[in-house]
Specification:
binds FE2/S2 (inorganic) cluster; mainly beta; four-stranded antiparallel beta sheet; about 100 residues; globular; Rieske Iron-sulfur Protein
Length: about 100
């Protein structure tokens, strides 16, 4: 298995305390910023069909907009019910003003 770094978005399109949806190759991801750090996760909540980019972000936590389940953006772990399944997270690097997301291929 190889890792592909994919240009997913302009870094200044990812605002502190908010999420955006982006395309990383054939994968739809959600990007979040907390200060200087940017995090990439699967776009959909593991509990249901909700777009996490529309969720509430505080520090390194995102709260799902549908049932208010929360995830740790650093590792995808669920922080409270009703979410019980971890969210997939992807390595991110910022280079040349762009957000690059590592997708295993
Ligand atoms: S769909 Fe996200 S907590 Fe239910």
């Amino acid at each position: 298995m190889s890792t592909n770094w994919i240009d997913a978005a302009a870094a200044d399109h990812v605002w502190d305390g908010a999420g955006i949806e982006a395309q990383a190759g054939d994968r739809t991801v959600a990007l979040f910023r907390s200060g200087e750090q940017v995090f990439a996760t699967d776009a959909l909540c593991t509990h249901g069909n909700a777009r996490l980019c529309d969720g509430f972000v505080e520090g390194t936590m995102v709260e799902c907009p549908l049932h208010q389940g929360q995830f740790d953006l650093t590792n995808g772990q669920p922080l409270c019910e009703p979410v019980t399944e971890a969210l997939r997270v992807y390595p991110v690097r910022i280079e040349g003003g762009r957000v690059w997301v590592a997708i295993d291929g």
